[in-house]
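Supplementary Methods. Inverse-folding protocol.

Structures were first reduced to a discrete structure-token string of length 124. This string, shown here, constituted the complete conditioning input.
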């Protein structure tokens, strides 16, 4: 199922093979819409590298936060070609500040950026 012109529902499934549950389709659609804005701004593909949705057991396995936004399909760990995590996070921050992307969580890691659509500012 296509969510946007560049993102499909399958991309957001749990890495343990579990698809995004239907109860979270609205969440994953909103997340994909925001990531599409980022992709259009960058002009390069945005890849979900680690997690989109996570089952509770997979979240525990990867030592995710107990209240992780991944559990409700509101988060994705991403990369974009040619953009180091710190630079990618700065671009997301600017798009949020410009009112183009939804406020949420941004976490900078060595190999990816976590972005979520929780609606409140969180940074790490």
């Amino acid at each position: 199922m296509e969510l946007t012109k560049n993102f499909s529902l399958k991309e957001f499934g749990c890495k343990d093979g579990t698809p995004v549950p239907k109860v979270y389709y609205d969440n994953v659609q909103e997340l994909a819409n925001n990531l599409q804005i980022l992709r259009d701004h960058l002009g390069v593909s945005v890849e979900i590298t680690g997690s989109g949705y996570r089952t509770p057991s997979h979240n525990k396995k990867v030592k995710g936060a107990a209240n992780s936004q991944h559990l409700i399909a509101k988060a994705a760990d991403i990369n974009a070609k040619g953009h180091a995590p710190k630079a990618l996070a700065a671009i997301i921050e600017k798009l949020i500040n410009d009112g183009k992307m939804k406020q949420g969580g941004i976490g900078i890691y060595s190999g990816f950026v976590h972005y979520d659509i929780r609606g409140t500012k969180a940074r790490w």
